[in-house]
Amino acid sequence: MSGQLRALKTRIRSVESTRKITRAMEMISAAKLNRYQDMMAKGQAYADNLAKLLARASRSGKLTVSHPFLEPREVKKTALVLITSDMGLCGSYNLELSHRARSVAGERGPGTVLIGIGKFGVRFLQRSNLSFHRTFSDLKAAGIETFLGELRGVLDELYSSGTVDAIDVLYGRCLSKSSYAYALERLLPLERPEAEASEIPGESHAEYIFEPDENTIFTRLIPLFFEAKVRQIFLESFVSEQIARMQAMHMATENASEMIDRLVIQRNKVRQAAITREIIEVVSGARALK
Known about the structure:
The chain has 290 residues and is of the alpha/beta class. It is built from 6 helices and 5 strands. β2 (113-117), α3 (119-127) and β3 (134-136) form a beta-alpha-beta unit. It is elongated.
């Protein structure tokens, strides 16, 4: 009986230690979530204004410049960018994305060019005998711009050289401050900005004067618009990862609390049984002496 009681006490202490860890990780994820959401909101404002600028120029009849990023092609070969996390402990987030990436790659055939972001998805697909054109890992918030520059260069080279005819990205899309969804989105070719930006009520349709010429301006603006879109997708995946991890750690903390409650009840029952047994032995011994 004493051995069982000792084992229960040890297990309770172990679960309590685990609960402290999961609660701390939940708080860390919440802090990171606030920081990444702030970065995402600022980036969204920049991307929206770029889209509105291109849309206003388009409505003025000036968007006549042809750019490779805007020209649709007959899709014969595609690239798939998979964005997962470098760390686990975020529920089914990484596993769900990896399963969907494997399914999409299987449907599109062996010619699909894979680009992996995050260790989990890369390792999962490599175990499924799929190879990557390029992988990125160990990403930190402080190095986002450097990473985005490298990623943009890789995608630009694949698309501009004609290696692929379209580029899709599979990631966690942020829906609100506490929810996300898995999304497969076409990254290149871009939809023309006039189809993405909403009309501004009361806006005049005045002609714009371009300085320098419109060809130079749009040649600079369209890559900036593409870069802003890539940045937003990446930041949304960061936010979704933290939401998933915060929810997973919250559930783990609650499960640990429930387990502790059950173990405490079981410990009390064992302790009560031991006390009852000792009382019976004392009473039986006293009667025997009489």
